[in-house]
Every structure is written in C-alpha cells, then in structure tokens.
Design a protein that fits this description.
Radius of gyration of chain B: 23 Å
Mean pLDDT of chain A: 85
Distance between the termini of chain A: 29 Å
Keywords (chain A): Membrane, Transmembrane, Transmembrane helix
Strand content of chain A: under 5%
Helix content of chain B: 25-40%
Strand order of the largest sheet of chain B: 8-9-10-5-11-12
Oligomer: heterodimer
Protein name (chain B): ABC copper transporter ATPase NosF
Keywords (chain B): ATP-binding, Nucleotide-binding, Transport
Order of helices and strands of chain A: HHHHHHHHHHHHH
Number of helices of chain A: 13
Number of helices of chain B: 13
Strand content of chain B: 25-35%
Distance between the termini of chain B: 29 Å
CATH superfamily of the largest domain in chain B: P-loop containing nucleotide triphosphate hydrolases
Helix content of chain A: over 70%
Shape of chain B: globular
Radius of gyration of chain A: 21 Å
Low-confidence stretches of chain A: 1-11
Largest sheet of chain A: none
Organism (chain B): Shewanella glacialipiscicola
Number of domains of chain B: 3
Order of helices and strands of chain B: EEEEEHEEHEHHHEHEHEEHEHHEEHEHH
Pfam family, one (chain B): ABC_tran
CATH architecture of the largest domain in chain B: 3-Layer(aba) Sandwich
C-alpha cells in the first residue's frame, strides 16, 4: 500500500473512525430515503395536533394546558416511538445478511462491535433528531404562546419528554437489532418485532393494570417496581407522569398507579441507561456467537 | 512459521515466506455434518488457484475459513504466516474478498460505496476515483447502484476487493451470470493482479474460463480435497484420454485411418467434417507418430483433457463411491489431499 493511500494520522483504523464512518452511512441512508423527515413530520404533527386541537375531544376549542398536552403526548408517543424505532432497525443485520454485505463487511478490518455501535449511533441520531424536532418545535411554540408562569414547566416537561423519547427509541432500536441478528429473513424479523411491540405496548400494560386492580393485596410495591422495570414503555410512562404531574382524565386513571413506582427521576433515567447497556451487551453477545 | 526452505524443486526453492495461504488438516463441522474434512493445501504468492467442486462441496466454507469469518473445528490456517484467528486489523488488510452475488447498497452511488469501503479499510477515499477509472466505471460513478448491470456490479465488487492492494484475493463465483466480455474483463484484471504478486483463489463453476489463468486447481467433493495440482499434473493423475480431430481428410486418408488398427480403435465419431479420435495417454505417442510420420497428416488438432474433463472424472468417482456405500467416499490412497510441496515435486519430476 502506498503511503498516500493511507489516511493521514497513525490511527487510521481506530475504533472511533470506523464507528463514525458506519454511523454516518446509516444516517445518510435515512436522510436519503426520507425516513428521518417522515418520522419528524409524524411526531411534529402529533404534538401540534395534541397541543392545539386536542381540546376538541372535550367539546371546546381552547388550547390544552401544558400538563394535559404532555400527558396526551406521552400516551400517544408510547405507541409511535417504539414502532418507528422497530421499523428503522428491523433489517439492520438480517437485511445485510440477505444482500451479502454483512459477510463482506466482516472481512474488513473491523470488529463486530464496531458495526453494532456504528449502526446504533447512526440510527440513534436519526431518532434523536426526529424527537428533538418533532417535539421541540411544539414545545417552543407553547413556550412562546404560553403564560410566563407556565413557561418553565413547559420547558421542563418537554425536556423530559424528549429525553425519555430518545431513550425509549434507543431501547427499541436495540430490540430490533437483537431480533434482526437472530433470524434469517427480514419478514420474520418484522413479524417478531411487531408481536413484541404489541405485547410490550398494549398487552403488557393491560395485564399489569388488571393485576394491579385485581390483586393489589398480593402485588406488593417491590414486586410492582420490578414488573415496571421489565417493560421500557411503562418506564417511559412512569417517568413522564412523575416529571409532569397532571390533574387530567388520563392522569387520574389507573395509569397513576404506574407513576407511583417510588423511583425518583434520576433513578428512572439510570434504569433506561441500564436497559440500553444490557441490550447492547446482549446484541453484541448474539452477534459475536454467530457464524455468518 | 519460520522462514526456512520447505521445498526444493528442480529450479526453485520455496520458503515459508513464499506461501500466501497455508491450510493444515482443516476440519469444519456443524454438529454432526462435516462441511470440510482434513483439508490441507498451500497457495504461493502470485499464483491463481481455482477452487472447484460441486454445489455444497465446501468451497464457500473454505473461503470463509481463510477469511477468518468462521473458525475451524480442528486444524489451522495461516495467511501470510499469521494464524487467521489471531490476525490484527492491519494484517487483515492483506485479504481482499468478493462474495458471491453481493448486491451492495442500492441507494448509494458507486463513488459513495467505494469511498465508504475505503474509509473502513483506512484508505484515502480519493483512491475510489482512481479505481473507478481503472475499472471503466468513471462515467457511472454518480449513478445509484440499483441502476447498475450485473457486470458493472462485479467490476465494482472487484474494485472494492483490491482497495487496500491485498496480497491475497478471494473471489467467490466472480463471473457467474456475466456476459463473455464482462468475464474477459474480470480475468484481464485478475491477470494484472497476479502479475503484481497477488495470490488469487477463485471459487468457480466456469472451468473453461479459469483453466487458462490458473496455476493449480483444488478440487473439493463432499467436504474432502479430492485432488490438488496443476492441470498437467491432474491430467497425469487421472490418465484421461485426449482427443484428436482429423480435418479435411481425403477418402483415401479416411480409409487408411479406419483400416489401421492402432487408429481405428480410437475413432470416437466419424462425420463429413472429419474424424474424432479418443486416445489414452499411453497410446498418444504411437498415434501421433503414425499420423505425422506414416500418414504425413498436418491438418489435425490435439485437445488434451480439459479442467472440465478432470472435474467430471472426480465427480464421477464420488458418485461411484456413493453408489458403492458403505465404502468410503474416495479411496484415501487414490485421492488423498495433495499438498503444494508434493505437487511441486511431482511437477518438477515430470
């Protein structure tokens, strides 16, 4: 190899440069196929609709209170964000396996964790930008249009919403990788992830709430906390209900039970981080064991 | 591996530093299924090796083992003297690979793709432009890959494989589905790389194409190395007949051929265009002597057994052994894996 062929700097094959190259490629792919803008538009439309048209449900045409807006956004985001993350990540590995590019990439001087982290960084940035723009613009409009006394609570509420949305998305991106690594067909990966989404977002919660109402005496606080931990969507709900206590219909419902986990916000963020780290390790372990 | 001399042939001393790839008793099993059994071979720098075998013979498994994508169940593989399993990133740059039927990323342009791969290999992205020009893809460099033909994709695939000027190039079915011009272009590039000292292993079913380029063939069957060697040594080992085509024979000459016992016994087909004789290696000298000296014929051509004929011979052996079950697939003495060392000795002797 001639000297001029090699990139400048001695560490031309450093982990950081490889990860950033892969991340940039994944990010550009999602810019090119307009996925990023589509997701941003969905979240923006959702947040604007809830904020400025949500009150129509109650028969009035006034703007929702910030707390009500946030509560509504959490309720709807918990369906959309995991779905978006799944659709972004389901074919990350199985798709490359099918096309033969994964085999090729693994012959390159890069470790499997480079590939995993690069994709995660790229996809994470896509979801983060979609969440920041999708919710941030609405938050900014509410701050500009709202009373001075509620501005701080709007900023705080939307900050927690955006942060937790990004974290929830990252968890579902990793769940997408996990399934994508374990199956041999894209369609199977998507099918399995949709089932997982259905269970975690819809069924799990219903079962949990039913149990809470039915066997409240048996299900003690510690056990309940553990059950919450096992579902990142409940963690998302709980975090936002704690961060934005609202006297609304939704907040008054049995969902308030989820908010009574007894965890503080820092601990809940740590739990999100724990989920992400644990899933990263799981994905790496599965990837490492695989013979392509 | 140390650098001591390992082989003395008639006019060349081969040292370990001449060996690009060395496989020693490699076995690869998937549960009860043995994908490769006791495979040993050497590939020298600057050699083109044809890796041939039926579907499922273990060719792709062998390539993956050389690339370090999978680990052997037992045995060892060395690339440039380094154990494949323990190669670092820099050492892995010595390997270039073109997978079978790779479809790349359809939404990228050719330039973007090569630049992406260049960055992953630590190569300046500017080299992508040079390679695209070299492979005749400059005009299409800003086209999305979903508009590329099969031939263009394969050219691009070969370009990515040689981004880091590898010492060893592994090509899995590089010409499958290509038109003759595209195939010829790829083999022209392969010849250039070979001239630069690159060891090239080509897994292929297109034996007619690879025959003229290769130094040696490794023939795999049911996970075993059935034979290894140059075409000449494989011809000698199989003792397959050659064909002689006698063209433009006069009536008298035709009669003479058919009446001469040594020739008439060899007649395979007779047509208005001429006669086709099939002759065993032991008869070859006598038949040629008769045609040249006695009949004074000059308008004939001799076609020795092709790689295809050799391949068919070994595949038939497998079929025979399967039919004769429970006998072993092949007689170990007949088709034992031949190492480069013994092969060179035999070639030098012949």
């Amino acid at each position: 190899m001639s000297q001029t062929d090699v990139l400048s700097g001695g560490s031309h094959l450093s982990a950081l440069s490889i990860i950033s190259t892969i991340a940039a490629k994944e990010f550009k792919d999602n810019l090119r196929n307009r996925w990023l803008w589509m997701m941003t538009a969905i979240l923006l439309l959702l947040s604007l609709s809830v904020s400025f048209m949500g009150s129509a449900i109650s028969g009035s045409l006034t703007m929702f209170e910030p707390a009500q807006t946030l509560s509504g956004l959490v309720t709807l985001s918990v369906f959309i964000l995991p779905l978006g993350a799944i659709l972004l990540s389901y074919d990350s590995f199985v798709g490359e396996k099918e096309s033969g590019t994964l085999l090729l990439l693994l012959t390159y001087p890069l470790a499997r964790w480079h590939l995993l982290c690069g994709k995660f960084l790229g996809h994470g940035c896509v979801m983060a930008i979609a969440c920041i723009l999708g919710f941030g613009v609405t938050g900014l409009m509410l701050v500009l249009l709202g009373d001075a006394k509620v501005q701080l609570s709007i900023v705080s509420g939307f900050t927690h919403l955006i942060l937790s949305s990004i974290l929830l998305s990252l968890i579902f991106i990793l769940l997408g990788y996990w399934v994508s690594l374990c199956v041999r067909e894209k369609a199977k990966a998507l099918g399995m992830l949709l089932i997982l989404w259905f269970v975690l977002v819809l069924i799990y919660d219903l079962v949990l709430l039913t149990l809470l109402v039915a066997i409240a005496d048996i299900l003690n606080r510690e056990l309940f906390n553990i059950v919450i931990l096992l579902n990142p969507t409940d963690l998302f709900r709980a975090l936002n209900l704690i961060a934005n206590p609202a006297d609304t219909l939704v907040a008054k419902s049995s969902l308030t039970l989820i908010a009574q986990t007894g965890f503080g916000l820092p601990l809940m963020y740590c739990l999100f981080a724990g989920w992400i780290i644990a899933l990263l390790f799981c994905c790496h372990w599965v990837f490492k064991q695989q013979e392509i | 591996m140390n650098n001591q001399a390992v082989t003395h042939s008639a006019n060349k001393v081969i040292t370990h530093s001449d060996i690009a790839v060395k496989a020693i008793n490699v076995v690869k099993s998937y549960n009860q299924f043995k994908a490769l059994q006791d495979v040993s071979f050497d590939v020298l720098k600057g050699q083109v090796i044809a890796l041939i075998g039926h579907n499922g013979a273990g060719k792709s498994t062998l390539l993956k083992l050389i690339l370090g994508l999978i680990a052997p169940t037992s045995g060892q593989i060395f690339v440039q003297g380094h154990n494949v399993g323990a190669m670092n990133a820099q050492q892995r740059l010595s390997l270039g690979y073109l997978p079978e039927n790779v479809s790349f990323y359809d939404n990228m342009t050719a330039l973007e793709l090569l630049q992406y791969f260049a960055k992953l290999k630590g190569i300046a992205p500017a080299k992508a432009n040079t390679l695209l020009a070299e492979f005749g893809l400059e005009a299409a460099k800003n086209q999305r890959l979903n508009t590329f033909s099969k031939g263009m994709r394969q050219r691009l695939g070969l370009a990515q494989a040689i981004l880091a000027n590898p010492q060893i190039l592994l090509l899995d079915e590089p010409t499958v589905g290509l038109d003759p011009l595209a195939s010829a272009f790829l083999y022209q590039k392969i010849a250039q790389l070979k001239a630069q000292g690159c060891a090239i292993i080509i897994s292929t079913h297109e034996l007619g194409l690879v025959q003229d380029q290769m130094e040696r063939a490794l023939i795999l069957g049911q996970g075993r190395m059935l034979a290894a060697g140059s075409l000449a040594s494989l011809r000698a080992a199989t003792e397959l007949p050659s064909h002689i085509f006698l063209h433009s024979l006069s009536q008298a000459q035709r009669q003479e051929v058919l009446s001469e016992p040594i020739l008439s016994a060899c007649v395979n087909t007779s047509s208005q265009q001429g006669l086709k004789l099939t002759i065993a290696p032991s008869q070859k000298a006598a038949v040629l002597y008769h045609l040249l000296q006695k009949m004074k014929l000059v308008d004939f051509s001799v076609e020795p057994p092709s790689l295809q004929d050799v391949f068919h011979h070994y595949m038939e052996s497998i079929m025979d052994s399967v039919c004769d079950a429970p006998a072993p697939i092949l007689s170990p003495t007949a088709f034992q894996a031949t190492s480069m060392t013994s092969d060179l000795k035999r070639e030098s002797m012949t």
